[in-house]
Amino acid sequence: MADHLVGNIMSAQIDLALHNFYAGNINGAPGLPDHTYLPTGSGYIRVIKAEIMYVKADRTTSELYLTTSGFNRIYPNKPYQFISISLNLGKLLPYLSDGFYQLSRSLVINLNYLDRIESNRLYIGSQEIPIPDGARKSLIEQLQVVKTR
């Protein structure tokens, strides 16, 4: 009985240590890398997280909208478009860094690229994105907003 208890305690300590390591809570620990390799139909692409402006998901696939320079780094001879990856949003979210905000079940935005918010839509670059009902208030709470009232 005592051996089983010791095993459970050690397992919990290892889990906590790994969590702290990957969260960057340990001095000298690298935390999550600034990039990740994501599956496409024909292999994997290296995506630098800071180049992701937003992600739209549809069940088992996700559409990555990268900066123009990020897209051109991966596909230098193609005209700009979203990149379809073979991964649902739930599996992708743990690999994204701080600064990403899940606006709805199918949309994650990089707050660093949020340029404008209106009553029922937001703008990331030239892209207009509708704000889902009830999501505006929680989005505003994530931002440093100067209130006038």
TrEMBL record:
The keyword DNA-binding applies. GO terms for molecular function: DNA binding. Pfam families: LytTR. Keywords: DNA-binding. Transmembrane segments: none annotated. This is LytTR family transcriptional regulator DNA-binding domain-containing protein. Residues 42-144 form the HTH LytTR-type domain.
